[in-house]
Amino acid sequence: MTRRIPAVRILATGGTIAGAAPSPRDTSGYQAGALPVDALLAALPPMDDVRVDARQLFSLDSKDALPGFWQALAREAALALTDPAVDGVVLTHGTDTMEETAWFLHLTLAPAKPLVITGAMRPATATSADGPMNLLQAVQVAACPHAARQGVIAVLNGQIHHARHLRKAHTHRVDAFDSGEAGPVGFVQDGYAGWLSPPRRTTPRFAPETPLAPVDILFDYPGISAAMVDAALRGGARGLVWAGYGNGSVSGRIEPLLREAHGRGLAIVRASRTGAGRVGVPDPGGFPQAAGLDPYKARIALMLALGAGTPPAALQALFDTLSYE
């Protein structure tokens, strides 16, 4: 009996992995998204055990990716995942906002097939570019049926990270991504995908077409201007993530302003600027806490929650749940 060769669809969006620089020595002075996906495939070795087809969706630098981009990409990924001829999907993406896109996809999609996001820290023209290996390993993981049980995942530098914990933790190293205290969910070596974590939930909390409410993030720091809170209100924000000191603390002179803004209809969620740990101190004023979500992931969750009409009283339960998925 002939074994069916798995089929993987690559959806390309640009980023450093498709970047080009004037010299092979340049790793920072380059144009992101300059090369088409066919050029990325040409850098890969022959793959007899996987069938690959690729489509160019965008050619952008992920620092310019707006929330509407997340929604468009989610729709395209959903179409690819429902194609009976496709066994797994790989998204190429810039690293600057990869963690935001992966988290949005996690909240809005329920992939019954592997959905893998990858990118690179060095442009495609650089000596020792990391993009070809990252893309090769992402395709290999997307062809692995077990990957479908992990939800949205990222493959970078030989490691597999879940969207919930994925973060960019360094400015330029090829091992710039990690999963904080949670650690990676797996690894890839010579085409073998090993798993270090049990399967995760694949039920989406929201739909890709959920309206995204405008939400800002403010970081507390010594001497922060009181005008910052008012600026968020005047700018039309419906929600605010407060990235406070330590366990989500709020400056004494700012706290009354937040409570006033809350009384004027601004949804406020307390997070921590530290980048790790759970905000767990009860808030006497009733502000929901981001629990274990960092400010960036808390913002996306709040954008979707407000857009979906989630009642204020239900926000804390939502954040508590999302923190442990």
TrEMBL record:
CDD domains: L-asparaginase_II (cd08964). GO terms for molecular function: asparaginase activity. The keyword Membrane does not apply. Residues 215-319 form the Asparaginase/glutaminase C-terminal domain. The active site is at residues 16, 95. Pfam families: Asparaginase, Asparaginase_C. GO terms for biological process: asparagine metabolic process. PROSITE patterns: ASN_GLN_ASE_1, ASN_GLN_ASE_2, ASN_GLN_ASE_3. Keywords: Hydrolase. Belongs to the asparaginase 1 family. This is L-asparaginase.
